[in-house]
Amino acid sequence: MDATRVHETAFVGPGVALGAGVVVGPFAVLLGPATVGDHVWVGPGVHLGGAPEMSSERRNRAWDGDLDHHAVVVGEHTVLRDGVVVHHGSWRPTTIGSHCQLFSRAYVAHDVVVGDRVTLSAGVSIGGHATVRDGANLGLNASVHQRRSVGALAMVGMGTPVTRDVPPFVQAYGSPVRVHALNAVGLRRAGVGDDDLERLAGLLRADGVAGVAGVESGSGGTGWHDQTIDRELHWWHTLPDRMPARLAGAPAVVPS
Question: InterPro entries this protein is in (predicted)?
Fold first, then answer.
């Protein structure tokens, strides 16, 4: 069923492009510029758009149309539950990837980039210019500081303030945020074999901070790392202004 349905109480403003099969629920507000991909579900009271605040200005001139701002982009098959808020970007589009789940009252600030298959649990807040990579999972009421990053397939525990960058493939929680182990559950769900899990755990143990050291392509394992591990480790080691989360201690080899 590809018909797009917009509830009679919702507001869809100029400059909003809705894909096929989009559902927009009661009292949702969508302000352009915005692009919503195919089969996105927009729940009651969702707010997409709204000009980013510029602290150097006496007021936000974007509302008057004389200060440039960028779009909101939502990828296909993403679910935005009730009360989700996503603001426009100031220098790049605020982007939510495909097949994401944003639960009730999740907040995504200006210029944030959220990858594909990301879960933001209820009450999660992502500060401006932050990055959340593919497959990451943020627990209830976790918060990400401005300009910080969460790596692919990382699991951030509920209520955690992410004030330092979280590397890919790990569990991170506590205040201050610390890395505790591999995210074995998430990695297995993504198709990672036990050989790769063991290798990643060894690399994590060997590091003084949560910089997961380089991995040699083709050195055993399932082959999954050839495409994903190498790419995400390259991203991690080339991340500008990186502030790695510290290790909580020697993680278990692989949590069962």
Answer: Acetyltransf_C, Hexapep, Lipid_A_LpxA, Trimer_LpxA-like_sf
Quick check: 105 and 123 in contact, CB under 8 A? yes
In a domain, residue 119? The reply is yes
Side-chain half-sphere of 155: how many Cα atoms within 13 Å? 13
**C-beta separation of 156 from 139 below 8 A:** yes
As averages over each run of 10 residues, the pLDDT of the chain (256 residues) reads: 92 97 98 97 97 61 57 98 96 96 98 98 98 98 98 97 95 94 89 81 58 40 62 88 82 45
**Distance of alpha carbon 123 from alpha carbon 108, whole angstroms:** 11
Tokens of 152: 């692919």
Kindly state whether residue 86 falls inside one of the protein's structural domains.
yes
Q: Could you tell me the CA-to-CA distances from 216 to 8, 61, 151, 220, 223 in Å, in that order?
A: 56, 51, 19, 9, 11
Please give the model's pTM, rounded to 2 decimal places: 0.87
State both tokens at 229.
Answer: 């591990």
d(CA 78, CA 98) in angstroms, rounded, equals 6
Alpha carbons within 13 angstroms on the beta-carbon side of residue 110 total 14
Here the CATH number for the domain that contains residue 23 is 2.160.10.10
